[in-house]
Amino acid sequence: MAERSRLSQVRHELEAALEAIIQDLGAPPGTPVVLSEPTEAGRADLATSVAFGLARTLRKSPRDIAAEMSARFSGHPAVRALQADGPGYVNVWLRVEFLAGILDDVLENPRSFGRSDEGQGARVLLEFVSANPTGPLNVVSGRAAALGDSLARLLNFTGWRADKEFYLNNAGVQILKLGQAVDLRIRELFGEEVESTWPEGVYPGAYVRDVARAYLDQRGADAPRSHEVLGAFAADFFTDRQREVLERFRVHYDSWAEERRFRESGAAEGVIAALRESGHLYDQDGAVWFRSTAFGDDKDRVVVKSDGSLTYIVPDAAYHWDKVNRGYERLIDLLGPDHHGYVSRITAILEALSGQGSRLLVLIVQLVRLMRGQEAVRMSKRGGEFVELTELLDEAGVDAARFFFIERASETPLDFDLGLALLNTQANPVFYVQYAGARIRSILRQAAHETVGDGPAAPMTSDEERALLWDLASFPDVVDRAARELSPHFLTRYLVEFAGHFHGFYRQHRVLGGEADTVRARLRLVRAVLAVLETATGLIGVEIPENM
After folding, report:
1. How many angstroms from the chain centroid is the CA of residue 331?
2. Up-side HSE of residue 177: CA atoms within 13 Å toward CB?
3. pLDDT of res. 201
4. pLDDT band (50, 70, 90) for residue 234
5. What is the pTM of this model?
6. How many CA atoms lie within 13 A of 430 on its CB side?
7. How far is residue 218 from each of residues 134, 170, 211, 213, 233, measured CA to CA in Å?
């Protein structure tokens, strides 16, 4: 069990104390008390609305119940006040001395503050992006890359052993069609007119010309030009380009798995044999069907077509079976919104093969609209018109792209405001966060030339200091929630509010040049703020520059 943070421990103790009080008042056994931050800023540090749910049982108004809870509370060393408020809330204010103690926790080991062992070393495999190697990565793949990589960082920070893997769909009909497209572009390079007779379903993108030129340069004009050969060459070509842009995007994979290997090794046929042996297949209309309805799917699925070829679900099943056999206890796939139906069938077949379908969790990553002013840029790989991820990185930068991609929950569609990403103002959240860190680094560089000596630090009494102390105390819980709910957008939300509190503090208070005890106190505070800013941004793959 992970050790509780300072704030979580106090919350836990207060909830237990209040639960004992409501038991004495006649609440049903096991009635929980939940203390959370009020939605109205500044109203209290923590609050509970438990009195509203007890009104009917206790036959009292929520206001009276809250008042009795407050009157019976015997105190806690971290609590300045606990009072009934409004129609039935119980509000809690913590002592600033308790919050100031968080500075010791942060500064004692700045790089580990917020870290936990919640995962207890369990192995997790995150598979994300896994774009077909039939073209460059687009901005939709960029969102999956930012989310998947941030999740891996979060899980490793909270005690899991998380690996990242890219699954290459480098086999099958799509690769043959890609090879056909390359052949047509080679003919075009030799002077043939191909656009007017372009076959339906064959990739029309102009980017295929790059592959055609590379093939001729590397293999020569007389090299074999079967669709199989050209398709394999093109898949490797685009895979190399995808690796390059992902590394630039600060996404490094621990492993790359190939569909081609699962087909050529016989692993896919092994899936069919295992399902046949366990009685989960039946023959109908010349095809082989998997009884996926027995495992919760809405209908049975064809696994072998009437022409003897395997459907795409079979090599995918072999791949997921392989994940289980490699010892991963959690399998997390990030898939696009067109994969909703895929989830039930891959879970069903994994359960049939290994009894481990529950290990798989699929996160659906919704689409991205890249906006230029009021205009949405069209993105369609099939039509050959899309915005490449590398183009976005050239224009907006890696930090803005990662931050914006993570700002919303994965299941929420995202409008990426390119104009906003380029602003060097408070309106741009990533700039606002980075500027807070750069300001602190500037302060610390100046402090290196001043002598403040050893001695006591002044107490922190201002609202702005208290807000920063609360943010620091809250950070471990934010990390825990983001990792537990697989939602790194909680970190971006935290960072924007944290940066806002720092900028507010900076406008109201001098760090250097005052009384020595005040300088010592504020230097400790800003060092702790910088440490948490660096950790939080690092968990989402965003960097803080030295100067801005």
Report:
1. 15
2. 16
3. 87
4. very high
5. 0.93
6. 27
7. 19, 20, 10, 9, 10
On whether the CB atoms of residues 430 and 516 are closer than 8 A, the answer is no
How far, in Å, CA of 16 to CA of 74, rounded? 13
Q: Which two tokens stand for residue 144?
A: 């999956």
Task: Say how far residue 117 (Cα) sits from the centre of its chain.
Answer: 19
Rounded Cα–Cα distance for residues 127 and 251 (Å)? 12
With a cut of 50, say whether residue 73 has pLDDT above it. yes
Structure tokens at 321: 């079976």
CA distance 68 to 62: 10
Average pLDDT over all residues of the chain: 94
The pLDDT value given to residue 497: 97
Q: Say which residues have a Cβ less than 8 Å from residue 465's Cβ, sequence separation at least 6.
A: 505, 509, 522, 525
**What is the DSSP annotation of 508-522?**
H--SSSS-HHHHHHH
Q: Torsions phi, psi of 52, nearest 5?
A: -65, -40
Q: Rounded CA gap, 186 and 113, in Å?
A: 57
Kindly state the average pLDDT of the residues 21-29: 96
Confidence band (pLDDT; 50, 70, 90) for 57? very high
What single-letter amino acid sits at 290?
Answer: F
The DSSP line for 74-95 is ---TTEEEEEEETTTEEEEEE-
Q: How far apart are CA 48 and CA 146, in angstroms?
A: 36
- Residues 390, 29: Cα–Cα separation, whole Å: 58
**Domains of the chain, start order:** 6-94 (3.30.1360.70), 123-168+251-364 (3.40.50.620), 174-246 (no CATH), 424-539 (1.10.730.10)
Look up tokens 């076959």; give the residue: 199
Tokens 């103002």 sit on residue: 425
Q: How confident is the model at residue 3 (pLDDT cuts 50, 70, 90)?
A: low
Residue 514 above 90 pLDDT? no
What DSSP element (H or E) covers 438? helix 429-447
Give the pLDDT score at 322: 97
Q: Cβ–Cβ contacts within 10 Å for residue 305, how many?
A: 12
Q: Residue 394: which residues within 8 A CB-CB, separation 6 or more?
A: none
DSSP letter for each residue of 139-199: HHHHHHHHHHHHHHHHHHHTT-EEEEEEEE--SSHHHHHHHHHHHHHHHHHTT---GGGPP
Give the tens place of pLDDT for each residue, 470-499. Answer: 999 999 999 999 999 999 999 999 999 999
Name the token pair of 119: 């995962």
State residue 383's pLDDT score.
44
Q: Residues with Cβ < 8 Å from 289, sequence gap 6 or more?
A: 281, 282, 283, 300, 301, 302, 303
Residue type for 19, please? E
One-letter amino acid of 180: Q
Is pLDDT of 69 > 90? yes
Q: Is the pLDDT of residue 87 over 60?
A: yes
**Partners of residue 79 on adjacent β-strands:** 94
Sign of the dihedral through C-alpha 504, 506, 507, 513: positive
- Return the amino acid letter for 371: M
